[in-house]
Structures
1.
Amino acid sequence: MSTEGPTPENEAAEPGDGGEWSDRLFGGFRKTSERLTGNLAGIVGKARLDDAQLDDIEDALIMSDLGPRAAARIRERLAEERFERDADERAIMEVVAREIAEILRPVAKPLDVVAFPRPQVILVIGVNGSGKTTTIAKLAHLFQEQDYAVMLAAGDTFRAAAIGQLAVWAERLGVPIVKGPEGGDPASVVFDAVKAATDQGIDALIVDTAGRLQNKRELMDELAKIRRVLGRLNPEAPHDVVLVLDATNGQNALSQIEIFKEVAGVSGLIMTKLDGTARGGVLVAAAEQYGLPIHAIGVGEKIDDLRPFNPDLLARVIAGIA
């Protein structure tokens, strides 16, 4: 089922407290943690793990989508570990969780509204189907919770559905939107949106952009034009270029980071649909391989299911340690 469009469940959702969010994390990452613990099941050792056991663990981490770099790093950490008792699955997972936390801490950076003069212009990019439109709405809601005034801009003019979906979300959230005709010039929409946001005292302007990767040159040219237009209005804009990734794509999400870094100058990531996959380990792979800020994660379809994360808690969630 697509998560692009609004649903009554989305509309009715109310923000939960930290405990509810923790519960959602454990529920959302259950498939990922079960896959990881399943791959590591049966590995036991003495005070130190031998090379064969370490090889098995490294392979298990790679099969759990943590990626070869993170797997090698965790293997090295485990090789240094002297366990007080014989190494069992729990003891191994404690070390895995600690090392995952070390990987995630440097990249766990919420998207802060700090631009002056306002607005802070946030370009949101990602392939069609990644949950980009819904993520924009969730991000707007997150800013609203922090008492920021938000505006949306429908810069994906190549899909009438994208314009329509964003307009529905704007109405439901009670935020203004700037849009143009289908097939219109995205840079013109962005220009109008920045002027309107400036006039209205908006704090954060979130801009949807096209998600086409069939022609990288065309997309690069389009984004370059948007940047030139923004530069004439505010040399600092765009302040953020946020790539939305669908965790269910697993390692393919990493190739999207590579491509969009090249064509769009990505400054940070949001990873969605972590609740619907056993491939949540790709979050760790992205952090270790690229080191880009990961501003928020999505673990559901409700409007408040996108939030910044605590790296130490999330590491234990991924490792399946309550």
2.
Amino acid sequence: MKPRTPPLQSLRLLDQVRERIRYMHYSLATEKVYLYWVRFFVRWSASGNGGQMRHPRDIDAKGIEAFLTMLATQRRVSASTHNQALSAILFLYREVLAVDLPWLNSIHRPTRKPRIPSVLTQAEVAGLLAQMDEDALTALIARLLYGTGMRLMEAMRLRIKDVDFARKVVIVREAKGGKDRVVMLPAALAPQLHRQLLAARAQWEADRHSQRGGVELPHALDAKYPRAGKSWAWFWLFPSPTLSIDPRSGVERRHHLYEDRVQRALKKAVTRAGIAKPVSVHTLRHSFATHLLQSGTDIRTVQELLGHSDVSTTMIYTHVLKVAAGGTASPLDRLLPVAP
């Protein structure tokens, strides 16, 4: 006899959290983070209760406030980490336990101080990209990131159907905030992207010949369109050279290229290029936005290309331009002659 599935109330707390996260289609990264903070919260509460575990329903407002205070004062976590923990606890009480805590909504969320992003000059970008040429694939991805302003994971998750050579655009699906957007397809990259399509096609055909499982599909599309995961249109533009086990379904399939490969290649290239600024993959996105504004592109267009919901987020790049332009002369220059 097939065992009866236990009701939701009888599942362990973390299983309930995991099930709710997947029902709401949150990313795997968010799932891992929220599970970490819920586990940490429950265990920390037990440490203050003689080591005896308590269900979150039995932890009062003072207990929750004490946990958040501990993170800020003892752990000295950053504002973003503190907000991450608070979001996980809010999710636990609101979405999993269906407990309304109005006072929790009024808790002050630490705000991150606005920072001027690190931006490379066009000459520095050219030098950096030139140093990545020993690995053609990561060099192509780095050029694509700078040429489109995409985030790293947005590029990693591109499907064959998302690259439109006829319209010269790339469609970014379900980006930050769950929104789609359209960015330009740099003409200079068209030949390299065509070659990458051929390489991806060869991998797709080999997988099909070996009758391997198809690629992962977003949300429940695999249930609605069972064969879509094995179709060419849904295959990754940048497939991984190896197969992996899907952590959610346990199915062995081909994932997209691991993002750490691009990050490592860029880090080595920064050293070889002799760039002394702090540089990450995201610096290419910052440089894309700044160089567009520098060339006269209006800020609303840049906002749409970056996928910012609020133009105030894009405005940070205008501050970079003001500093770089050097429009205001220092009073010292009126007193001392400029050294030859």
3.
Amino acid sequence: MASNDEEIVFGADDEPVKDTADSAAVEDAAASDKVSAEGAKSSAEAEPVEEVTEEAAAADSAASELEARYMSLYAEYDNYRRRTQKEKENLYADAIATVTKEFLTLIDNLDRAVDGAKKSDESSLEKVIQGMELVERQAQDTLTKIGVEEIPAERGTKFDPNLHDAMMHIDDEELGEQEIAMVFAKGYKYKDRVIRHAQVQVAN
């Protein structure tokens, strides 16, 4: 039989269970486990925050690098644009200077021809005409030298709207349909580019 100092508690299985002071220790252990679990949970929650911060820093770094590359490319393009514009201006100026230089001798001869015509009389008229013809040939040679060609537009040439400008139409039994009858002004082209269309009279 149990002594009077020991309390007997019967459970569901009718077996005696000792109710001792160990229950306090169990509660302390449970509380300690709860604190540990909460601490572990806090640590687990803190890790993703740190990862997000690192990703944000990496994204900021990549954005800064892209911005720097963009600014570098923009500056390079701006320099290229300015340089190209300057080269175009210089090229145009060089072309003007080259063409003008070729025509300076022609202009000199025209001035001489005009002065000679002013001083001429009926006896020297033939010499004036010869001088003007010489200047005309020189002008044609100058155009040929810089690559400018006269557009064919002799009488009987087939009319081409890409090269000729029809100023008027006439009926001419000597010519075929859409053939040039007369040239009012010569046309010129540089390679495949028409500088001025030949102004012509078209038959039939």
4.
Amino acid sequence: MSGLINYASCGALWLGLGVKTPDLFRHRHDPYLRAICVVLGLAGVCFLLGAAPTVGAVNRLSGVPNLAAPLTYASITAYSAASQVLVVHWRGGPRVHRVVRRWMVAYACVLVGIAVSFALGRAPVERRTDLDTYYATTPFIAEMIVLYLLGHLAAVSVTTVSSLRWAREVGGWLRAGLLTLGLGSLCNAGYSVTKLIAVAARWCGRDWSALGTTVSPAAAGLGALLTSVGILVPLAGPRLAEWLRSWRTYTRLEPLERELDDLLTRCALRLPRPRWSSPTTRLVWRQTSIHNALSYLDASFDPALYERTRGAALEATGDKEHAEAAAWAAVITSAVRGPWEPGRRPAPHGHPEGRPGDRVPGPAVLVRIAAELETAGAPSGHVRGGTTPSGAV
């Protein structure tokens, strides 16, 4: 079961890495993006190497009992350093490169210490899940275990404090990401703390290995998930919010497009509908279709009807935006139901100056026009005689 959890965590982390890889190819010289990808990649490696089936495979293929242990510890150490480097790049400042170099040098020394300790120690009995407590009293192997746990704890503690402290200074998606990252780092600290407690208990002659085999992996898995989410939220959040806004606007414009549907179809004014596209692309397509129809009807817009409707709505409600939308809805409905033939532009109403079409409605106005048409319950295509949007006179 633990192996399945490890592989699932690895897959989730590498999925996040796959999301960011295209951006890395486009901006390969961006140190921040490189740090993100390294953190996600190394976190996945940690879970992959820490899974019991992988541990057995590495030991068997290498012929060295417990070789998977220093490899896993090294990946955890590298992940710890990469997490702190990410926060440093994320926040920026004049001393970024100097601070990054210090962290990299410090954790390079930890990696060397892990390798040397394992080479000097003896761990002949393979332990796939409880090596930390089984060899907690073995010379050099114990030092290797404590070294990687303290290195990991130091990095995630600094990351937690830095993230939560910075979160108080910012807002929006960045704040949400920092809070999630800080919580994930705190869970990762729980991994090291429970491991260290189990090791210390072994020194005292007690067997608390269950802490290292059950509680620690759970804390690490939750920490990895929260860390990945925290990293991706500030990047994906604004895009997701934009997609939601675009989809909402796209949906709200449907009554207006439906009113113009007959004209768009008969005069071939609608572009091909995009398939498998983002909400933003669909919104642009719908807005383009509407503007094509309005441009076609430009000459037939009745400025007198526009002014009468706008004045009546403004007098009734005192809302300029509502009055403008009601006036546009009235002249659009009037122009659509007026006499026209396919292939010919409608006859103008004869007011060369100040036509409503000279003031092309923007996206916000289009949404209000669509709402007016929806409220009036205007059927698609031509409007039945005598039916006008609310506010028309």
